[in-house]
Write a structure and sequence with these properties.
Chain B: It comes from Labilibaculum filiforme. Chain B: This is Tetrathionate reductase. Chain B: One of its GO terms (molecular function) is 4 iron, 4 sulfur cluster binding. Chain B: InterPro entries: 4Fe4S_Fe-S-bd, 4Fe4S_Fe_S_CS, ET_IronSulfur_Cluster-Binding. The complex is a heterodimer of chains A (about 750) and B (about 180). Chain A is of the alpha/beta class and about 750 residues long. In chain A, about 30% of the residues lie in helices and about 15% in strands. Chain B is α+β, with helices and mostly antiparallel strands and about 180 residues long. Chain B has six helices and ten strands; from the N terminus they run βαββαββαββααβαββ. In chain B, the strands form four sheets. Chain B has a four-stranded mixed β-sheet with strand order 8-1-10-9. In chain B, strands 2-3 form a two-stranded antiparallel sheet. Classes of the chains: A alpha/beta (about 750), B alpha+beta (about 180). At the A-B interface, strand 3, helix 8 and helix 22 of A face helix 1, strand 2 and strand 3 of B.
Chain lengths: ~750, ~180
Amino acid sequence: MKSRRQFLKISSLSAAGLIFGGGLLETFADNLLKKNQSYFKGPYDFVRTPTYCEVCFWKCAGWVHKDENGKIKKIIGNDDDPNCNGRFCPRGTGGVGMYFDKDRLQTPLIRTDERGTQSFREATWDEAFDYIAAKMNKIKEEHGPECTALFTHGSGGKYFGNLLKGFGSNNIAAPSYAQCRGPREVAFLATFGQGIDSPENTDIRDTKCLVLIGSHLGENMHNGQVQEMSDAIDKGATIITVDPRFSTVAGKSKHWLPIKPSTDIALLLSWIHVIINEDLFDKKYVEKYTFGFDQLKDHVQAFTPEWAYGITTIKPQQIRETAREMANAAPAVIVHPGRHVTWYGDDTQRLRAVAILNALLGSWGRRGGFYSAEKASVPHYHLPDFPTPNKNWRDAMGGKYKLADLALASGVCEATIPSPEMSCSIKGWIVNGTNLINTLPDQKKTIDAIQALDLLVVVDTMPMEITGYADVVLPECTYLERYDSLRISQGRVPSIALRMPAVDPLYNTKPAFWMARELAKKLDLLQYFPFETIEEEIDWELKQVGSSLEEMQRIGVKVLDREVDDLYFGEDEEIEFNTNTGKIELYSTALEEEGFDPMPVFTKHPEPDSGFYRLIYGRAPMHTFSRTANNPNLTDLMDENTVWVNPKVAKEWDLKNDQYVYLENQDGIISDFKIKVRVTERIRWDSVYMVHGFGHADKRMTRAFGKGVSDTQMITNVMIDPIMGGTGMRGNFVTFRFDNKNTEV
Amino acid sequence: MRYAMAIDTKKCVGCSDCVVACQTENDVPIGYCRDWVVEVMDGTYPQLEIELRSERCNHCENSPCVRCCPTGASHYSEGGIVLVTKNECIGCSACITSCPYDARFVHPEGYVDKCTFCLHRVKKGMQPACVAVCPTKCMYFGDLDDPNSEVSKVLKKRKHKTLIPEAGTKPHLYFLI
């Protein structure tokens, strides 16, 4: 929605730009440089130092405590932080393991032999930067600066981003978009004119009915949401879980709908049918705020619960009952948009159905539904203009995915593989804190892209698989040993949080800010790094919002006032939504303009052949992707994944609990490693399930190597969402093998 | 004073945060734990139920471990908390055998170790580390003799059980069901 608040934010930002732009810039920076740097206290001046967690994207703020010898002992949540309310999750509590892990990258490395082999020599930082700068300049001369890209997932991304933009490229992508939450952002933008963003604006705390579709809160430890779900359970909220697997939260649900995988849109359409035809929708809300109700009503007439039963295997009575349950709770109901939603390639449309359902129930902008989140407006120091790139990754896409509001990591990867249609493919990658080998589906394609590169720089704390393909590896210190950009989170109240080092970096490791700035020196781009240290930049930013580094070092988190008190819609409030019609679009004019279905339709997806089972993957609460797979504290809780198999299937294959098997997918890909069988009633007979992030192939990760199977290795069929380029990964089928030898001749 | 803990199985998501928080708070070496999570599943597809329980020493009122300890290392402390005095423990493991809850282990340094209800924190007016960290706030700690303590209040309000009551140990660890 276009809220008053958003206009205010824009104006406050531009004012800051005016004051500090232009000539004042140099004087200000000069003064800062002259200032004695001991003005900022160091980690040793504190018993506890503030940080925000880097183990997942929730970024909870906490305190790092040290023992009497100055050794890191524990990390505890900051009571003032709205993201965690003083309670860290297991990964955050176990974050200490990232620091103590002896398998960490320790010094810069330069490749000595071909990519994919562990052949590196240790290098000095200066050598590493010279090497990178020479290669980047060569790419610039031969192909243009646009032929470079940054993949990032983590806090140091901003500085490598500025470096790349200054160099002349805007190919900056995060796998959290096209591989994760992109479809929901596009679907909610198309419907409400506003995305969901992170942390989600779901008002779970006060909801009376929470509907989860494949979303496994509790196993995905999105801290604030899990805390609020627990509060909602205390207050007697109803939970409805749609999942082919009896997830932890299914165990806390009044209704578990064990849906046949890939048929969710049919269920959603039929819920919409019931809610419209039984007159259960919020009439006043629909009339006042929405566009296209009549078209929607006509559209769903055929989608009766009886129709959906044949597709989803969910009984008509249960579909009706759950729809009524939602309507009874409305508007304090949340049909949760989920987070990792790239499943079948029609994901934007599925999330559109979710958005439409919420609109009919009147939950958007209502207590117990979705609140209007606010983010602090912290001005950034005005940098000189970046050069305008002549082209970017979109040029390689032939006009596809116009509705993608962020760059696609898979698109940038694709734009790297040389093809006759492209004038120039991407020649250099910087990869910061994301293990692309296990993050992007279709590993072969990723490796093909990498082999076509002239330069691959990897910045990481751990020897992840991607480092094995790097030309240069830059070892970053962990989040407990560095400053990073401020955390500026959205929420019911805007908040900012500080991360400062609790201890000096171990080994020869450095923070991303320092690396990016040193590289900028070599590339003659220092004008984009006006502050010599990150402390000075953070202090400058904090002073714009009435705080300072000194204050934040003491308090860690600062909660600011909302600019406008509009957490929920007012009674009969006139609201203009940021869509073409200014209304909540049940019928999407934006999708229609681009030639897509204006209202969601169900399409049938392929099903597994006999002897094959759909591969479903998910999370365990003690791990984040593959990032934590070697963390000593967290592998102590869980050190390998298992494959969940229904007892009927186990009987057919004569599989026993704890037996190890290999998996083979529909394309004949056999897993590198074996996986333990877990025979359980908690999964349908047409599917198997495993936790994502295991089966690491890099021997330097001693605790993670060879433990379990990598679901990513099994995902070779990728169904691309035509609307925004999301990579649907749930259309892969596996069978069991008792050896991993390829018997084909 | 009788310290006790109640754990809400309806809210616990089995994330094991209690385990890792205990490890870092009490310097429990990696590979060992003073608390752990048990998942019990019942039923057949699609009629299923799961119970999740964060378990630890039950700090029994009638503790077999205290009774069988030959040196008196295992003893009752403040509020009935069962503790082991490190330097009096000879590592004979009689207590480990006697405990119906399998709550004790031999620390690599040779003595028997277990949950202390974080007495060092409780003395300072803080909650045990596991209770303080739990994202679902599913744990309640306090004095059973104080009717206004969190644990007394929740036990009054909710249906609950103890583990292996037939062992006659009078456990101080309750599970809300």
